[in-house]
């Protein structure tokens, strides 16, 4: 029983990481209608930036928040420079542009920091604490806490602030938004900035465990895609629930099912496929699958 | 100086010329109607003002040239209620109204109360998703949202479209009231010439992207040949 | 009517010239270069296949490297003489007895190519049937997942695939000329690299002509209808499911052939050979080539090859060459070029070429009006 609780908590922690990245994907999908295949690589670059800051002597949490700010700016710049020109174009063009971004970021990381695996410090101690007789890792709890705080802040932003309302409106109906005076272009840029922040959170939380190298986020991206699809690409809440559920399920499958850890990725893929075939809108999303 | 001044405005959709040189004006405190058959360019005229379509020619608001992007135009106090209403169907009535006041700084509670007072049915449906409202209610929501902006100029595109006569009468009544009590200036596009002429002081009749006839509503209403050829009754 | 024939004749002439150029090229370049161009030919085939499904049918596939893997591993398994026991079966189990004896010695490499193509094609159809009901973006996601997951599955099925170590083919007698580095063709003896070059490009040209015919036929028109407006196409009676799946199957066949050739050229396969980056590289090459336009394919294939194998760019001035050799820089260039191409030329190089020739074709079409 104690083991089960540990596994669930660990699953929630990794699920939280998936959820952050999945939320980033959903944000961008809702705003600009494309899936940002480069989200993982951007997160990876952000994590390297934070590593660089820490190497130069900054305290972890200072580096953490500074990196969030830097990531925000990077996200905004990318939207204005790279994405805006392809706004009205077909989906495929946007996909390929994000693939180009993916490849570029990967190369950039290799170029600046090299390919060897680096250690990444955790913002939380590596102790375990005793909760009702079960040894729970502080790291796991910390990850879960950060994820929940980030999600809560984001929710508050979107539901309670004027700017958040403006962003929601811009994503839903850009034309009507312009008529009420919303600068839709900047709303989209803001969306990309926030997504970059979420990605950075995801990267900095996962790096202590998987160690830092340019390909670190590839599997996380796939899990995030699975989570976003599971929850519904248009539903931020769904992305969070999907991420947490996926994390726990994968952990339990590996621990108690007969699934070797090398098959975790294919399981995630199979999940994506099954969900899309049975219920394309995911658990909470809304999409029109045309049946012709 | 008129509040809104259009001089020889042209606009096209790709290769199709929709406006062929429209000249019209709206004075402060006036309700002006734009009439004409389908495809005459009425909606395009409004879209040219609000910046939703590319145009050439001069458009001035209170003597200053009007910017070309919709959000800039909105920030100058022009509220456009488009064809199809332009409500945010997935958001609540309340959120829609809050969005109407997006360009306003400061407290909007007073406006909120005022608008809900004018459109009682919206008060009841405050928390409902806008898409679940009936056609008439959505039109009221669209108008209410425009009013939240405290606009200098209201652009109304076919408010009567698809609505029952009673609802149409109620909406036009509110427009007339706002104009009489607060001096709201309105540029109104309508297919229903009768109610438009009853509400507006002056009217322009468009044909093939150009002003064919203009004059005071009374005159146009009396003029048999104008009525028959342009207004259909 | 005569204008159409003139353009067609022009294209045929261009193709013939291209073929002659390819046939003679090995006489003027080094052996190593011949090998490099052979790889370009392999990518040419793969991108051609991808083009059929992405450019003409309008379905996004980010996972074509997986179909190459299927073709490649089929070839490797057959050439090496059959799978060892699958996980879960013991050595010497009944399963091994099912593997026909006459296959124990392994297949001659050439004969495995059509088999690899067939297996990949079947996989493509099987994948296509469910997946192609999904709207474009979801298909992109699923195929992306496919690209990432397949190397893992290959690693897992180590009884068949040799796991992480892969399957080594070098020295295998079934491999034409690999050991002795000479191949006896009627009339001459060529090196392995030259033989590889001629093999891949002969196949590539044949497949190009096949694709050309296919796309000019009713099949191609149906595909384009599906790409341009699904609802209208369906309303015209085109079975979306059938054509999309067929297009996917055909493109998988092409990828499978490319994969088989890749295995023969490399003389080994392992999961890294077909990792996710390969699928991305293919899409990028297809994009550069110009989605939907056959003419830019050669450029696209070149692009993919030389950026994946930067060492081969030794004809560039030293400064640029060493800059490009720095790890990470090629990918950065890749990314920038790709984004720039997409921003400037949304139809890639092929589309650009067609646009260049448009004044000529316009004149041909409107002559006499």
Overview of this protein structure:
The complex is a heterotrimer of chains A (292), B (233) and C (369). Chain A has helices at residues 2-32, 39-55, 60-83, 91-113, 138-160, 162-172, 174-179, 184-210, 218-231, 236-255, 264-278, and strands at residues 128-131, 134-137. Chain A is mostly helical. Chain A has one domain (2-278): ABC transporter involved in vitamin B12 uptake, BtuC (Orthogonal Bundle), CATH 1.10.3470. In chain A, strands 1-2 form a two-stranded antiparallel ribbon. In chain A, helix 1 runs antiparallel to helix 8 (184-210) and helix 9 (218-231) packs parallel to helix 11 (264-278). By secondary structure, chain B is an alpha/beta fold. A six-stranded mixed sheet of chain B has the order 6-7-8-3-9-10, with helices on both faces. In chain B, strands 2-1-4-5 form a four-stranded antiparallel sheet, with helices on one face. The radius of gyration of chain B is 17 Å and the shape is globular. With 369 residues, chain C is mostly helical. Chain C has a single domain, classed as Orthogonal Bundle (ABC transporter involved in vitamin B12 uptake, BtuC), CATH 1.10.3470. In chain C, the strands form two sheets. Chain C has a two-stranded antiparallel ribbon with strand order 1-4. In chain C, strands 2-3 form a two-stranded antiparallel sheet. In chain C, a hairpin with a 2-residue loop joins strand 2 (183-185) and strand 3 (188-190). Chain C is globular, with a radius of gyration of 21 Å. The model of chain C is unreliable at 85-95 (pLDDT under 50). Chains in contact: A-B, A-C. At the A-C interface, helix 4, helix 9 and helix 11 of A face helix 6, helix 10, helix 12 and helix 15 of C.
Low-confidence stretches of chain B: none
Residue ranges of chain A: pLDDT <50 for 5 or more in a row? 288-292
Number of strands of chain B: 10
Give the neighbour order of strands across the main sheet of chain B: 6-7-8-3-9-10
Question: How many individual helices of chain B?
Answer: 10
**Class from helix and strand fractions of chain B:** alpha/beta
CATH architecture of the largest domain in chain B: 3-Layer(aba) Sandwich
Number of strands of chain A: 2
Give the assembly state of these chains.
heterotrimer
Number of domains of chain B: 2
Shape of chain B: globular
């Amino acid at each position: 029983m104690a083991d089960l609780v540990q596994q669930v908590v660990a699953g929630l922690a990794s699920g939280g990481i998936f959820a952050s990245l999945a939320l980033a994907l959903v944000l961008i999908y809702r705003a600009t209608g494309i899936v940002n295949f480069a989200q993982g690589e951007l997160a990876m670059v952000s994590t390297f930036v934070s590593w660089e800051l820490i190497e130069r002597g900054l305290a972890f949490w200072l580096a953490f928040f500074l990196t969030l700010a830097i990531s925000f700016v990077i996200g905004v710049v990318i939207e204005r420079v790279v994405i805006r020109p392809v706004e009205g174009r077909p989906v495929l063009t946007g996909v390929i542009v994000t693939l180009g971004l993916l490849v570029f970021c990967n190369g950039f990381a290799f170029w600046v920091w090299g390919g060897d695996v680096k250690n990444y410090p955790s913002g939380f101690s590596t102790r375990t604490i005793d909760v009702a007789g079960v040894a729970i890792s502080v790291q796991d709890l910390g990850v879960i806490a950060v994820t929940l705080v980030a999600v809560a802040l984001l929710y508050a932003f979107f539901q309670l602030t004027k700017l958040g309302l403006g962003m929601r409106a811009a994503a839903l109906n850009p034309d009507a938004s312009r008529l009420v005076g919303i600068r839709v272009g900047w709303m989209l840029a803001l969306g990309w900035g926030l997504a970059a922040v979420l990605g950075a959170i995801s990267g900095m939380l996962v790096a202590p465990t998987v160690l830092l190298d340019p390909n670190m986020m590839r599997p996380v991206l796939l899990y995030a895609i699975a989570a976003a699809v599971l929850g519904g690409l248009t539903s931020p809440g769904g992305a969070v629930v999907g991420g947490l559920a996926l994390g726990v399920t994968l952990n339990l499958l590996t621990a108690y099912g007969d699934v070797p850890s090398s098959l975790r990725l294919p399981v995630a893929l199979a999940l994506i496929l099954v969900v899309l075939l049975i219920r394309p809108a995911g658990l909470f999303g809304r999409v029109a699958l045309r049946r012709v | 100086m008129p509040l809104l001044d259009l001089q020889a405005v042209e606009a096209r959709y790709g290769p199709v010329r929709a406006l062929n040189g429209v000249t019209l004006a709206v004075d402060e405190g006036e309700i002006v109607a734009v009439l004409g058959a389908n495809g005459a360019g009425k909606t395009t005229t409004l879209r040219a003002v609000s910046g939703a379509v590319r145009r050439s020619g001069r458009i001035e608001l209170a003597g200053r040239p009007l910017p070309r992007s919709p959000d800039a135009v909105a920030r100058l106090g022009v509220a456009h209620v488009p064809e199809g209403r332009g409500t945010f169907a997935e958001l609540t009535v309340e959120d829609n109204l809050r969005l109407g006041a997006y360009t306003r700084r400061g407290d909007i509670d007073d406006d909120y109360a005022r608008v809900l007072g004018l459109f009682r049915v919206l008060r009841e449906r405050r928390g409902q998703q806008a898409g679940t409202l009936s056609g008439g209610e959505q039109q009221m929501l669209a108008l209410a949202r425009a009013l939240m902006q405290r606009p200098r100029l209201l652009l109304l595109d076919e408010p009567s479209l698809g609505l029952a006569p009673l609802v149409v009468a109620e909406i036009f009544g509110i427009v007339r009231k706002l104009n009489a009590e607060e001096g709201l200036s309105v540029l109104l596009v309508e297919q229903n010439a009768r109610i438009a002429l009853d509400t507006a002081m002056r009217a322009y009749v468009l044909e093939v992207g150009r002003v064919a006839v203009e004059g005071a509503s009374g005159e146009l209403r009396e003029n048999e040949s104008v009525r028959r050829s342009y207004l259909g009754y | 009517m005569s204008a159409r024939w003139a353009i067609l004749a022009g294209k045929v002439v261009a193709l013939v010239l291209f073929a002659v150029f390819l046939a003679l090229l090995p006489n003027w370049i080094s052996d190593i270069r011949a090998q490099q161009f052979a790889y370009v030919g392999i990518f040419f085939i793969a991108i051609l296949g991808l083009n059929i499904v992405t450019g003409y049918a309008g379905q996004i596939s980010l996972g074509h490297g997986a179909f190459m893997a299927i073709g490649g591993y089929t070839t490797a398994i057959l050439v090496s003489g059959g799978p060892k026991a699958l996980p879960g079966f013991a050595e010497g189990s009944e399963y091994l007895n099912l593997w026909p004896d006459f296959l124990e010695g392994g297949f001659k490499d050439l004969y495995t190519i059509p088999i690899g193509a067939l297996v990949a094609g079947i996989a493509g159809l099987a994948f296509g049937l469910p997946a192609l009901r999904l709207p474009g973006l979801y298909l992109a996601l699923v195929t992306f997942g496919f690209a990432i997951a397949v190397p893992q599955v290959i690693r897992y099925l180590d009884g068949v695939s040799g796991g992480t170590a892969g399957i080594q083919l070098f020295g295998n007698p079934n491999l034409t000329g690999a050991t002795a580095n000479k191949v006896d063709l009627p009339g001459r003896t060529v090196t392995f690299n030259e033989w590889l070059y001629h093999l891949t490009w002969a196949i590539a040209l044949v497949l190009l002509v096949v694709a050309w015919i296919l796309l000019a036929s009713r099949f191609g028109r149906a595909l384009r209808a599906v790409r341009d407006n699904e609802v209208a196409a369906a309303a015209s009676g085109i079975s979306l499911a059938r054509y999309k799946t067929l297009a996917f199957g055909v493109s998988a066949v092409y990828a499978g052939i490319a994969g088989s050739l890749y295995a023969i050229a490399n003389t080994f396969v392992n999961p890294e050979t077909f990792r996710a980056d390969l699928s991305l590289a293919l899409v990028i090459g297809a994009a550069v080539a110009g989605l939907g336009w056959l003419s830019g394919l050669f450029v696209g294939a070149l692009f993919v090859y030389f950026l994946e194998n930067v060492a081969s760019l030794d004809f560039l001035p030293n400064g640029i060459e060493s800059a490009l050799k720095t790890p990470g820089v090629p990918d950065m260039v890749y990314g920038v070029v790709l984004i720039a191409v997409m921003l400037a030329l949304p139809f890639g190089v092929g589309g650009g070429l067609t646009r260049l020739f448009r004044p000529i074709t316009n004149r041909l079409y409107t002559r006499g009006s």
